[in-house]
Amino acid sequence: MTNNDLQAELNRLLPGAEPHVVEAREKALTDYQDHQGKDASGSIRALNLAGGLIATITLIGFMALGGLLDSRLSILVVGLLLSGGAFLLNRSEAGLLAEAFTVALSATGGIMLLVAFGYDAVSEQMTCLAGAVLSLLFLAIIDNKIVAFLATLAAGFSLLIFTILAEWHFFTHLFLAAHAVLLTLFFLRESHFLTLGPALARRYLPMRAGMAISFLIAAVYLGKQFWWSDEVVVQHYIASCVIIPLVLFVAYGQLSKFKVVGTKKWLYLGGLTLLLLPTIFAPAIAAALLLLLLAFAAGSRSLTVIAAAAMIYVIGQYYYDLHLTLFTKSMVLMASGVLLLAAYGFLHPKLVNHEDAH
Fold first, then answer.
1. Do residues 206 and 250 touch, judged by C-beta distance below 8 A?
2. Helix axis angle, 238-257 to 283-298, nearest 10°
3. Which of 36, 232, 253, 316 is the most exposed place for a label (fewest CB within 10 A)?
4. What is the 3-class SS of 70-100, one letter each residue?
5. From the first residue on, what is the mean pLDDT of each consecutive set of 10 residues in the chain (358 residues)?
6. What residue ranges do the domains of the chain occupy?
């Protein structure tokens, strides 16, 4: 969502000219802009993070060589100490160096706690659930953008591994479908989340990025399952049956935003539906398109680039996995090229007119 869109949505959610209402609207917008502006120092944060991780890993290496990590209790104690150090550093005002060590200690401490939990007899599935719970705990208590991103990503990845270990393919599709619904709500209800409280507002952008990446990971995993193999009859398509309507819903909202109305809007949606129907066996394509539309609607350039790259990859994977002859694949590729060129020729003049109007 762009700043203008966010301002309009905040005016709708918090109507009125009372001083406290105006102040709440301005604070939510200012916090959002501050979070966006701080991304410019990402390279410095990356260097500090690398230094903190190297230092922390070196410390753990010396502990391992000294025999301090030979039992579950010792690993648990070290994990608690590292996590406690991350919490204390997070509350300090020591600047970027403290922030870097907060991330390093949080990541290594969380891994140590997870290793201690699954040290002996605990099942892999229970370890995955513990990883998701631990990630959400770190997300709640550590007020750090990188930790929020890593914790959200780790929670989604842990739940994905849990569904895979369940050896019930329908479960993985159900997870991807639920993830798609949650991600769509998180993008389209941005102003609602930003007005729920300052703690959530500070974590919103990294949480959104973490959810988007974990969603793509799950979609790409399903996209590698050779959807056009002989086993296609016994596969479940619940993910596509949820994601494709979500794509159409988001596209409908964007068409309304750009004042496309009447028959023209339904022609666009009908064409998009026809394009997506052949991908019902490959939910990764619809998932990448959904993220692309959401990132565009939110005005996130980084996620737009990631979604576009993912879409190119999953379409290539889909084409490669087709159990068709090379001649038939060539015909499919040629037809797709002609269709895309026709769509470009149809849409390009409208995009130019729209840019000239603004």
1. no
2. 30
3. 316
4. CCHHHHHHHHHHHHHHHHHHHHCCCCHHHHH
5. 54 54 57 53 60 73 75 84 86 71 84 82 82 92 87 92 83 90 90 79 88 92 59 63 91 81 80 81 87 89 90 80 67 72 65 50
6. 324-358
